[in-house]
Amino acid sequence: MYLVDTDIVVSYLNGRADAVVLVNALLPAGLAISVITFGEICEGIYFGRDPARHMAGFRGFLRGVRVFDVNRTIARQFGRLRGTLRQQGQLLPAPDMLIGATALAYDLTLVTRNLRHF
After folding, report:
1. Which residues on neighbouring strands pair with residue 68, listed in sequence order?
2. Does any domain span residue 24?
3. Is residue 76 part of a domain?
4. Cα–Cα distance between 18 and 2 in angstroms, integer?
């Protein structure tokens, strides 16, 4: 199963051809997002142009996509990840670490263009 990061979802929702092809290719193997990505997408929708239309598009995307909530398993993985990165002097934004922790906790393949944080 693939965990798709926010940047990929935004590109897909904006109709970028490469993202549409990628998401459609990954869908048969199983697609998921973190609840963190869910929240980041909602922020963009609520504070963008035409929220109703964009929310409808996001709901369409979510059909067949699993949304992982942050739970104790993910929080434990987040703690390990954050501690390791802190020891290395490489703290990253908490939302990105929670998304990464979700992928690690459930052995998911993370799909992102954000190579700086992942």
Report:
1. 34
2. yes
3. yes
4. 17
